Structures are given as structure tokens and as C-alpha cells.
């Protein structure tokens, strides 16, 4: 029997596998490009404040104060919690080369139906919370399924479909809330019927940090296991990179579109439950908004990797925690939106440039190796 562990080829044909080293180099380049985008956004924000006659140094002073304050760090993590989940939902679509811009509508549908159905049962605490989470998963998934079916059967672009579905979700929820599920009480705080205490989510730090952060981290971990470590995830990523080649390899592209959109919508449905289970315990006009669109920026900045998504969400949570301190320092809190926008624009531009350079370098190395192998043969 031949010992296959010994490479008997001539030395000049023994080309070491450069893949791990290349992966590390590419990861470092991507990390550097993302950090460059963040740094650029801070420089531009400082220039904007300076040109408008504001004290630009106060912005950086408040940032440092927040970084050294335990209360603000708790707030940062708490604010990042829903953005981690929204970022994962968006990233699943990106991996399939789909732009699920409908996360906003999907999580609002999840919150609304979880609030309505959650009041219809009397269950032990763990089961009650689990039921509400399942309802949110199903509601978000079914709402995303509309866009998926339109794309698969009629070729409707998912961006157009999900944008329209966002608007439809808001109006449909408002109609159902006003006509059927508005809870009448003596209070001026109009909401659906409040959830019983068995549906309340615990806190890690009383009044500062919800334990829902553990759910968000679990979602990021499950995303990593499914998309990066499973056969389904390989098929999903292969379809996203090259649908034609994937079909040639026996992967049903339409089924993968349906599966990825359903999974993305299901994860999106969990985004707003921190608000429902730990802040309001009911759905009302003061619903959480903006997480879906922040999730797009988080996924882009995090390069659709679970670790990157968590770090990006923490960055955005940190920026959101600056709003109050900046107002005290008489700096417009809208500068936070400027920083976010520049980060997003910078990431798109810088990462595109880096991707082109990495692809060119990979092609050059491959050509050089083929030339060496051809000459040796």
C-alpha cells in the first residue's frame, strides 16, 4: 500500500498550500479597510463641526467619556443588541447575493403578532417566552416569503419588493392595531393588551442591560454554524457567488432563494423582541424603528461575518449612546447620523477597491504558479 502522506513529487513541483496565509492576509486587509472607513468618518465629522462653528474637540471628548463610563458601556451593548440580529438577517441575504432591505417591515410584523398572540396564553415563563419568539420567527419569515415568491415566480427584484412590503407592513399593522387590537384602558398610553409577567425577559444588569443580548449572540453563533460550517451554508454561499455554476453542480437556485429569504425573515422577526419583552410589554405607536436599515450598515461594515457584525453593532450602539451627551455639549446629535453615513459610504468604496486588488493579486499568484508548473512539466 502506498503511503500517501509522503509527497514524492520533485521539489520544484511541491508548492506549499498558501491558502491559510492568504486568508490571514485578506482578513487583515479587510480589517484595515474597515478601520480606515471609521477613521475617515470621524475626521470628516470633525471637519463638519469645525466648518459649522461648533467645537469639534467636544465630540471626541464625549466619545472618550463614554468609553470610560460603565453605564454608557452598558447602554452601548444594550443598543447594539437588536442591531446584531438585524445585521445577521441582512447578511444571510447578502451571502445569497440578495438584498433583503425589508428587515424593517419583517421585524415589525414579528413584534406586532408576538404582542397579540402572546396575550392569548397562560404558560410557564420559559415556555411563554419561547412561544412569543416562535411567533416572531414565523411572522417575519412569512412576510419575507412574499418577496421570495415574487422573485422566484415572477422575477421581481427583491429590493423593489421588500421596499414596498415595508410600507405595506406599516399600514397593515396600523390598521389592525387601530381597528382590532387596541387595548382600551384609562391610561393615555395606548397599546395592545400588555403581556403577562411570564413573558417578560430578565435583565443582566438591572435597568441597564437586557439579557436579550445573549439571544443576539446566540443568533450570531447559529448564523456562523449554518452559513459557514454546514452543507446548506456551502450551497447558499455557492449560489450567491455564481448561481450558474451552482446550478451546474446540482444546486437548485430557486430553492436556495426561498430558503435564504425565509431564514433571513425569520431572524429579522426576532429583532424587535428586546423592545417587546423588556421595555414596553405591548405593541404601541412608540414602536422601535430604524433597526432594519442600521442592520444593512452593520452587515456591510462587518463584511457579513458574525464577529464583524457583532463588533460593528457595538460601534453603532456606541455612536447612538452619544446622542444625549452631545446635546448637553451643545453639539447637534445629528452628527451621529453623519458619522454613520460616512462609515457606510467609506466601507462600500474602500472595500470595493480592496476586493479588486485582492482579486488581482490572487489572479497574479495563480498565473505565476501555473507558469512554474508548466515550465517544470
In short:
By secondary structure, the chain is mainly α. Helices cover 73% and strands 1% of the residues.
Strand line-up of the largest beta sheet: 1-2
Number of helices: 15
User: Whole-Å distance between the termini?
Assistant: 27 Å
- Mean pLDDT metric: 86
Counted beta strands: 2
Order of helices and strands: HHHHHHEEHHHHHHHHH
**How many structural units, i.e. domains?**
2
Which shape, going by the Cα principal axes?
globular
Cα Rg: 24 Å
Q: Structural class of the secondary elements?
A: mainly alpha
Major sheet: size, sense and barrel closure?
Answer: 2 strands, antiparallel
Q: What is the helical fraction, as a range of percent?
A: over 70%
* Low-pLDDT runs: 1-18
Strand coverage percent: under 5%
Describe this structure in words.
- With 377 residues, the protein is mainly α.
- It folds into 2 domains: 25-63 and 322-365, no CATH class; 81-302, no CATH class.
- It is 73% helix and 1% strand.
- It contains 15 helices and 2 strands.
- A hairpin with a 3-residue loop joins strand 1 and strand 2 (209-210).
- Helix 3 (70-95) packs across helix 12 (291-301), helix 4 packs antiparallel against helix 5 (125-154) and helix 5 runs antiparallel to helix 10.
- It is globular and about 85 Å long.
Q: Which features characterize this protein?
A:
377 residues, mainly alpha, 2 domains, two-stranded antiparallel ribbon
List the helices and strands and how they pair.
Layout: H1 19-51, H2 56-67, H3 70-95, H4 103-118, H5 125-154, H6 158-181, E1 203-205, E2 209-210, H7 212-229, H8 231-241, H9 243-248, H10 253-269, H11 273-280, H12 291-301, H13 306-320, H14 323-328, H15 335-376
Antiparallel strand pairs: 1-2
Helix pairs in contact: 1-15, 3-7, 3-10, 3-12, 3-13, 4-5, 4-6, 4-10, 4-12, 5-6, 5-10, 7-8, 7-13, 12-13
Amino acid at each position: 500500500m502506498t503511503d500517501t502522506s509522503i509527497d514524492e513529487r520533485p521539489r520544484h513541483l511541491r508548492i506549499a498550500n498558501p491558502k491559510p496565509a492568504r486568508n490571514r492576509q485578506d482578513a487583515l486587509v479587510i480589517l484595515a479597510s474597515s478601520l480606515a472607513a471609521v477613521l475617515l468618518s470621524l475626521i470628516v465629522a470633525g471637519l463638519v463641526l469645525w466648518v459649522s462653528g461648533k467645537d469639534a474637540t467636544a465630540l471626541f471628548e464625549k466619545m472618550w467619556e463614554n468609553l470610560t463610563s460603565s453605564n454608557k458601556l452598558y447602554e452601548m451593548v444594550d443598543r447594539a443588541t437588536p442591531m446584531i440580529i438585524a445585521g445577521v438577517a441582512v447578511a444571510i441575504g447578502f451571502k445569497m447575493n440578495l438584498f433583503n432591505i425589508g428587515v424593517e417591515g419583517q421585524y415589525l410584523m414579528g413584534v406586532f403578532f408576538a404582542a397579540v398572540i402572546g396575550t392569548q396564553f397562560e404558560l410557564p415563563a420559559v415556555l411563554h417566552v419561547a412561544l412569543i419568539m416562535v411567533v416572531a420567527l414565523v411572522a417575519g419569515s412569512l412576510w419575507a416569503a412574499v418577496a421570495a415568491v415574487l422573485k422566484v415566480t415572477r422575477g421581481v427584484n427583491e429590493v423593489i419588493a421588500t421596499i414596498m412590503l415595508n410600507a405595506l407592513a406599516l399600514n397593515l399593522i396600523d390598521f389592525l392595531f387601530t381597528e382590532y387590537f387596541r387595548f382600551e384602558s384609562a391610561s393615555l398610553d395606548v397599546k395592545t393588551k400588555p403581556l403577562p409577567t411570564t413573558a417578560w425577559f430578565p435583565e443582566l444588569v438591572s435597568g441597564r442591560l437586557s439579557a436579550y443580548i445573549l439571544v443576539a449572540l446566540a443568533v450570531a453563533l447559529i448564523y456562523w454554524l449554518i452559513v459557514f460550517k454546514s452543507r446548506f451554508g456551502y450551497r447558499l454561499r455557492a449560489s450567491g457567488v455564481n448561481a450558474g455554476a451552482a446550478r451546474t453542480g446540482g444546486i437548485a437556485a430557486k430553492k436556495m432563494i426561498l430558503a435564504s429569504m425565509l431564514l433571513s425573515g425569520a431572524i429579522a422577526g426576532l429583532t424587535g423582541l428586546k423592545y417587546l419583552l423588556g421595555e414596553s410589554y405591548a405593541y404601541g405607536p412608540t414602536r422601535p424603528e430604524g433597526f432594519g436599515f442600521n442592520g444593512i450598515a452593520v452587515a456591510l461594515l462587518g463584511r457579513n461575518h458574525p464577529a464583524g457584525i457583532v463588533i460593528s453593532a457595538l460601534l453603532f450602539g456606541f455612536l447612538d449612546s452619544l446622542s444625549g451627551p452631545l446635546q448637553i455639549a451643545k453639539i447637534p446629535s445629528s452628527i451621529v447620523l453623519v458619522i454613520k453615513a460616512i462609515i457606510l459610504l467609506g466601507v462600500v468604496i474602500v472595500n470595493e477597491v480592496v476586493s479588486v486588488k485582492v482579486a488581482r493579486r490572487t489572479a497574479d499568484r495563480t498565473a505565476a504558479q501555473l507558469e512554474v508548473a508548466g515550465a517544470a512539466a
